[in-house]
């Protein structure tokens, strides 16, 4: 080996004068070569027996789904409607049948009992009628049963030339044709105010409804037939139109019974035969009575 060459750590140094040189390699850290990865995918080798079992399970699951959701076995065929009130059971049945022609989430036919939407049917029924009780039951495999009890009628409410049966709280039960109203058991109340029905409920203060019912019963006990009761823009006032007579004005902030007693005294002691000839009788101001 020549004296001017030294091998150290496998590197070669050359000595020239007092300087040492080496052939060391340098690399730029910003240009690192990317490592190559070899992806070896896992290969599954299933036996023929396993494949047959998997196919059979798939067929069974699909057959079961078809049987549950699309076979005729679970198609709704029967409707059992039981209820009380003036709502015709046939009407309830038609509304229910109509819904079976629709689809749930635009995909699943509601004629299948699994997909029949009870909540939607309840909304449809309650939008047109008022119920004390409403039960919707799915009787598998193919029957829808509905049990209902309609709210009790308390008044007939006239508004904008439309007539409605309503309960004591002012909830509308159903609309009716005035030509079909033959019963005189309910007070006929005319709403001439600007407060109109909203959300299936009368917007007039319920106190007026309670007072109108009370007056109707008073006149009925006294053998005077009320043709209608009127609620208009006059504050704290109900007007009672008597059949073949005029209107009687009552103050709802005073005792209705005392005002009615004043009317009876006026009729029996002063007006007598002229009672039915009066256009109106105003009982609203204290002990005074005004009439014409």
UniProtKB/TrEMBL annotation:
Domain of life: Bacteria
Keyword Repeat: no
One GO cellular component, as annotated: plasma membrane
GO biological process: cell division
Transmembrane segments annotated in the record for this chain: 52-70
Keyword Transmembrane listed: yes
Keywords: Cell cycle, Cell division, Cell membrane, Membrane, Transmembrane, Transmembrane helix
Entry-linked PANTHER family: CELL DIVISION PROTEIN DIVIB (PTHR37820), CELL DIVISION PROTEIN FTSQ (PTHR37820:SF1)
Protein name per UniProt: POTRA domain-containing protein
